[in-house]
Protein 1
Amino acid sequence: MPEFGLFLGCNMPAIRPDVEKAIRESLPAVGVKLLDIEGAACCPAFGTFYSVDEEAALAVNAWNLALAEKLGVDIVVQCGSCYSTLKIGRHKILNGWKEVIDRYLQKADLTYTGKTDVRHIIDVYRNVVGVEKIRESIKYSLDGMKAVVQNPCHVLRPSKIVGFDDPEKPTALKDITEALGAKVPYYEREKQCCGGSGGFAKRDKKANLEFTKKKFDSMKDEIDPDLIVVSCITCLLHLDSIQEEMRKQGMIDYKIPVFDYSQILAICLGKDPDKVARLSVTPRDELIGRVLDNRI
Amino acid sequence: MMNFLPFLKRHRGDSMTINLDEERDKTLIEEIIELGGHDLVKCYQCGTCIADCPTGIADEPLSAKRIIHMIKLGLRDRLVEEQTPWMCVTCGGCEERCPRGAEPFEIILAVRRWQCREDETYIPLVLGEIYERGHTQNIVNASELRKSLDLPEVPPTVIDRPEYLERFRKMLRETKVVREYGYIFGIDEEE
């Protein structure tokens, strides 16, 4: 049975712990053992130490990598930006920064050799678990439903460091969503960033709303999806809550429920929706009801 | 030689009027390279970096191309005032598509670091929170909610492990940012 250290980050365990619950239910149910990385900290995010002191940022990356290495496992992570900073940080540490960073780790009584790598949860579902295993494990399906998928930017680019999928035509999240029985048709703005990360939404709300509306209108006009499937805490929070803001401002008049992949998988596996998908701004109950009517 | 100045004056607002006497600092480019913009000189101003930038829709979009040009010209005073690097969504689009491998995203991060060094009010205060509890979010506030989901009330991260938190802080106290700006981290500089 493959084993991974579950890296929680900051937003998921604090703001959407139902996603953490969904991951802790779903991955073991499809054959992946999860270990807690005791003592793990902030990844750190690009807007924190990376924007002030690169050496300090790499030291914090190394702290997290070293704690997972002590367990003898690779890291699995859902948050796109945690994945990216850990993966890019690891790349830098192993390509020129190792001696400098080792001195910081010594102060914390830790060592990092580079053995522990970082995998995004989409990569683990697609390439460790596989679509066959997912297909044969589910009890309920998305048969007859149309989904759109939101690939986290941070798992695609820069592809030479973080990539496990085609950066211009990613298929992994689509493959594992189709394994649940949904159709995932292409729409023109499929690859557009959710807009939720970094300082854009905070510094120019109006432009951010206009940017995100383009994406929503494209999916609504071209597909009219039953649900949006994401696999990043920022994509989840932003695409869920910005719909409410756009509705209040009269920019859109529709609602599209948003699920983290592990949440919709957990529901298809027969887990309690009140534990694995309780929190959202845009209502999801009707869609959950339809899935539970689709007993295989 | 043609005189372009009347044209420039007609097509630009006052704030953008070109001032040929503006002070230029030749060391600026070296400072940004040293802070992580290692491939800055490769940029040949093609603009691929801004073609797909999510902030392009904003009135004042982030333009890596423009910022790189400012650095090459050594416009130090303007770069300190520039707010757009903090709009970056960190999507990596510019980094992926730059035909010269100039690594625009790394340059944007280097500019943020340079701004923090020039003007410490740029330093995000969330750094102090990470030092304080190991996370940007106070996960402890979600204890009741977590319990109701049958999760550990507080996860076994550094926020719930005082012995790890002490080691984490000990490591961070070795870093330049904590040594130089102790007040952000609740460290008395007299000690």
Note: The mean pLDDT of chain B is 92.
Protein 2
Amino acid sequence: MTSLLEMRGVTVRFGGVVALSGVDLDVDLGSITSIIGPNGAGKTTLLGVASGMVQATAGTVAFAGRDVSAAPAHARGAAGMVRTFQNLEVFSNMTVLENVMTGCHRHVDYGVVDCLVRTGRFRREERRCRAHALRRLDFVGLADKAGSPASDLPYGLQRRMEIARAIAADPALLLLDEPAAGLNTRETQALGELITAIRESQGVTIVLVEHDMDLVMRISDAVMVLKEGRNLAMGPPEAVQKDPEVIKAYLGEDED
Amino acid sequence: MDLGSLLQYLITGVTVGATYGLTGLGFTIIFNTTGIINFAQGEFVMLGGMLGVAAYAAGVPLPLAVLLAVAAATLAGALMERTFIRPVASASPVNLIIITIGASILIRGVAMLAFGKDTFALPHFSGMEPIRFLGAAMLPQSLWVLGVTLLLLLALKSFFSSTMWGRGMLACSYDPKAAALMGINVSRMAMASFMISAAVGAAGGVILAPITLTAYDVGILLGLKGFAACILGGLGNPFGAAAGGIILGVLESFGAGLLSSAYKDAITFVILLLLLFVRPTGLFGKGSGERV
Amino acid sequence: MSPSRRNLLGLGAWTLLMALAPFLLTNDYYVSTLIIGFFNAIIVVGLNLLIGYAGQISLGHGAFYGLGAYVSGILAATYGLPVEAAGLIAIVLTGLIAWGIGIPTLKLSGHYLAMATLGFGVIVSIVFNEAVAFTGGPSGLTGIPRLALFGTTVESDLSYYYVTGAALTLVMALSLNLIQSRLGRALRALHTSERAAEAVGVDIARYKLFVFVLSAVFAALAGVLYAHYLGFAAPSSFGFKFSVTLLVMVVLGGMASVWGAVAGALFLTALPEFLRAFEDIETLVFGGILILGMMFLPSGLAGGASRIAKAVAVRLRRD
């Protein structure tokens, strides 16, 4: 099995609007796959279906060979499919470190009684979780901000914190929803390096929904193009870049 | 179980239900314009009855007392919006809920200080001679209740569909930013919605007061039932609220008559809970309300 | 200093203060006021977890307080069960009821949730009033035996004070531990962003239910202690008015602080004693606190206290 994420025939209808129609997606294990397309193509909706936060009208989602189409969002998160959000979802009532420690949720191993009574197991796991979170913060370059309230961080750093939180979960699959939104050129460059580093050092498979073409073409192994809720093209970045259909979709049909 | 009793339950139910409907209407108007659920809505109903009693006791002729009560409650609505809601319009839903609860407590407290804890009665508008038919007796006041309710419903319908103000308020509920960009004064609409809701609620309170008596604390239960009427009819749907209120009143009346009068209030709330659990969009719902 | 170290110090200071208080007070009457204050504090700490940390709302928590009081009272007074057993059954039963009502209720949010909890509270209140055969109706249930632990009756006010104080300290410790854990982080996360919490694997429905049931269990515990102290339980003590009072205590104390919750509860229990002559304006004061609190001081006494503490710390560091 080389497809970590396999989506087949995904259709999503919101009232009268068809957001997605019969979309297929294969994400290879260990790859960085980007999903691009003009505005309104349904990219974020597709990510929503994958993560279980959007109800698909039809179609299936398989993760690591198992059909998860009926699984609720939190179950998919617990299974190792973690997503970030286009509009930052920072836990503003916690510090940066606590935000990232929350990311550890699925692999911190103790029960309610352990929490309430502070057993040895609780202390051990909390220590481990804390160290783990600090390592992730260090990885994204935010170790010195660990104790700050999360809402005090500037936008760009909050984005990085969100990524640290996501990788603290030790995911098998990371779904990034427009991670470069609101970042300048320099920050986007750094983001690209970070994403590549995550794949290299932790073997995480990454799916990226993005508008920034430089970023997409630079770091992706595969690119999938959506247009008006349908598959338009799929392949390596160079091939997709040259695909006439793709060019037409982005630039409009002013030749004809 | 004769026709007469059943008819009697129906009449009582529809009469009381009309007030629930008017209270529910008040909730709907504010919710439609501002997205806020005003937990103090029931207090406007209470103010209608109590202020009517106070005015009449001060020697004001009954028709004038009724109008004064509604006018004073309208003012209270404006005051409430200005003082408590306007400054915190951007607060989180939980905070807003707590603020409107605080406002309802405040209004109740003032009423208690001003009027004491007794129950009061307002004289019936056109005498107490019951109209008998088919084995049931109907108080003339019931006709007043139904008549005024119908009138208010029709007036509001034409207000919202045909007048600039009414349409402006509806625009605010769909998208306050877009409405503002179109030149609609959103905060004035909000104040207007509170005033209209207070007027409608107070009208309901004052016309029912002769039948059910009134006291400083009738607002709590009435407010809850008004909200239940909203939910039953679908939050955001004015006619749903009115219909929901009447259905609720009838169910409550039949429940009290056929099952147990002691638990009649509990019946209403069990219905409310079941509705919330099973079909929060109500019978005629728009499907709006809490976006998941 | 780590949060858990701070908590431990705080609990230590609290325990000391609590233990010494009866000897520092001039009047025995104040001890009984504190006992009632402790009952309220036990409920409010739990409610604070639900509202302040997890961001939910309950306008019907008086019902769980009443269920604890009535079930324990009825089992002990009418059916002659030993108080320890009656109390335990009451707490477990209330927890089960909270679990049952919580499952459908917590699927709601915002004003739907508020109304559902309010409706539930009113229904329970009506049952207390109308099930006269069991509850004694509006005039209440009398003849409830005094609390007994391991066979010994907790006779004097002073010993009751210490038993209740110990219960409160336990509740506080459990809550503080809960907050500084994976569970606490999950709760705080779902307060600000349910989606992001789900994304990292938090089962938000389960956690909401857990904190709801926990807060109901705390309330029931307080109810048991209440019933076997006063020997008496009446429906009017557990209705909507009391549920709102609890809300005021949570708001006043600061929405996300165990210490604030205790402070809010104790302060608002003592306040009516001082306002004895002004009983009528009690309602106005409560309404005012709710409104002003939400408008100007959303983090309550605790927030104000922590801001003062921070300002003092900054000042000290500068010198």
Note: Strands of chain A lie at 3-14, 17-28, 32-36, 58-63, 66-67, 81-83, 173-177, 205-209, 222-227, 230-235.
